[in-house]
Specification:
The protein is mainly beta. The chain is built from 4 helices and 40 strands. It is flat and about 75 Å long.
């Protein structure tokens, strides 16, 4: 299939009604065709908006039909779709079913790991190939930040990441080929490839319509990747010393842009200077996402020469227990890294990183007005206390915090820019505890979040709460993969969960 960016953009401008009216009958905004012993969902109309649940069966003119298939392109271009829940009755999900759903944030099949023998979902991503999820079928295009692909994903469906808003993807070591339109329209995307045993072949149109993307590959493979049309000039250039990747910055300085798998220490030390080709350079910056998705890091020491630590560093660093870093711009207090407001001289003004292995209660200092995106990613903390007015609770702030029970606001002020999307993604039910008289305005600010409940000071938990159905999650340190429908990560032959407990 060959498309152009212009044609796709034109398609998205069509109304949902124009995309519909393709089936034999419609129920609740979804279009169906009769199909052997059930029906096939073939399209949608203008009633299909927001959080959509596809039922396991549908009733029409007195007859009940099982829904057993999603047709190819069934939800294509449905920009009003924000999340979708699929039934376990599905026997086939067609190609490009969610292509062009630019506001889609999650795809879920509820009912437990083995609810469907052909398809599973983990963290809102759709996989095919049975319980081991060897095929990445569809990634929600509206998701942001970084994504660490499990190591046993062997293939990706056509257009799997098309128009995603992700900033960085770590590709699986089991991939051998990237299909057409896989990263169509993905602007500014960084791809990280650790695989040295064999080359991933990119289709010439894998990045159709994409701009400013960068692909980092092992030094030993650069010539082979440079020869591929889709990669070519987009190779990220770097020097490597002790597993740390450095890129040149003006003024005789170096910037850390990443790590090379298996070549860096779990107790990582970034030096203040680095000698390359006989010349010595100051190390002054860690780029955005450079140290993310490295789940075998245990401690990180950064030099005082660092002038800027980029955003989304240490996201999905499941085993990280300690960060050593202190200069005029950054301070570590009680194990947590803060950024200081150098313009106004305000200490601890931004909570930058809470190491994932940290447990217990975290109380924000009174000077903290901002929390970096992903700052608490997969942290094991159980309680966070906020006594100051925050600018915002950003997207995915507490993503993967499986032990988090309460976020306590001592202030009556809702964050000025509100709560972002997927703030508590991957958490169980989280209580937002607020001062008396403030419940209604906090509830209004979190209506888009599914797994939270707002309680006033002293208020008890209701006897019945509709908690979100969670898939079992397991994680680790050296290799990350899906086994029997669950995320598992191993180190030295042992398996660990996201709390660092040996299984």
């Amino acid at each position: 299939m060959k498309k152009t960016f212009t044609l796709f953009t034109a398609m998205l401008s069509m109304t949902a009604t124009a995309m519909a009216a393709t089936g034999n009958f419609a129920v609740d905004g979804l279009e169906y065709d009769y199909y052997s012993d059930g029906v096939m969902l073939v399209g949608y109309n203008d009633e299909c908006q927001g959080d959509v649940v596809v039922p396991s069966s549908v009733k029409y003119e007195g007859e009940t039909y099982r829904i057993i298939e999603l047709a190819n392109n069934s939800f294509q271009g449905c920009t009003a779709l924000t999340s979708i829940e699929l039934p376990t009755t599905l026997e086939r999900i067609g190609s490009l079913s969610f292509y062009g759903c630019t506001n889609l944030r999650s795809i879920d099949i509820p009912g437990g790991t083995w609810a469907n023998s052909k398809y599973i979902t983990y963290d809102g991503v759709l996989y095919a190939g049975g319980g081991d999820g060897t095929q990445l079928a569809a990634f929600p295009a509206a998701r942001t930040g970084v994504f660490d692909m499990t190591d046993d994903v062997m293939s990706m469906w056509l257009g799997a990441f098309a128009y995603t808003k992700l900033s960085k993807i770590n590709l699986s070591e089991s991939l051998t080929a990237i299909k057409a339109d896989a990263f169509e329209g993905c602007n500014g995307l960084i791809l990280e490839i650790d695989k040295e045993d064999g080359i991933i072949a990119f289709d010439n149109s894998a990045f159709e319509g994409a701009t400013s993307y960068t692909i980092y590959v092992p030094k030993s493979c650069q010539d082979a990747y440079a020869a591929q049309t889709a990669v070519g000039d987009h190779l990220g250039q770097y020097d490597e010393v002790d597993g740390i990747r450095y890129a040149y910055k003006s003024g005789g300085r170096k910037i850390v842009v990443g790590l090379t798998q298996y070549k860096y220490s779990a107790n990582l030390v970034v030096p203040a200077t680095v000698t390359i080709g006989g010349s010595t350079y100051d190390v002054t910056e860690v780029s955005d996402y450079a140290l993310s998705c490295r789940f075998d890091l245990e401690t990180v020491t950064l030099p005082s020469s660092i002038e800027r630590l980029g955003s989304m560093n240490f996201v999905e660093c499941f085993m990280l227990g300690k960060i050593n870093f202190d200069n005029t711009k950054y301070t570590v207090k009680d194990g947590i890294l803060y950024s200081n407001d150098t313009t106004y001289g305000i200490p601890l003004s931004q909570l930058a990183v809470c190491p994932a292995a940290l447990t217990g209660t975290v109380e924000l200092p009174s000077t903290t007005t901002d929390i970096w995106k992903g700052a608490f990613s997969h942290a094991k903390v159980s309680e966070v206390i906020i006594s100051t007015t925050l600018k915002a609770i950003k997207d995915e702030t507490f993503k993967g915090c499986i032990n988090l029970k309460e976020v306590i606001f001592k202030t009556s002020n809702v964050p000025t820019s509100g709560f972002g999307n997927d703030v508590f993604a991957g958490c169980e039910l989280v209580i937002i505890r607020v001062p008396k008289g403030c419940k209604s305005k906090f509830e209004a600010a979190v209506t888009h979040l599914k797994n939270v409940i707002v309680l006033e000071e002293g208020e008890e938990m209701p006897t019945k709460v509709n908690a979100v159905q969670m898939n079992p999650v397991k994680g680790s340190t050296a290799r990350k993969f899906i086994k029997d429908g669950q995320i598992v990560i191993s180190k030295d032959g042992d398996l660990y969960d996201l709390s660092g407990r040996k299984l």
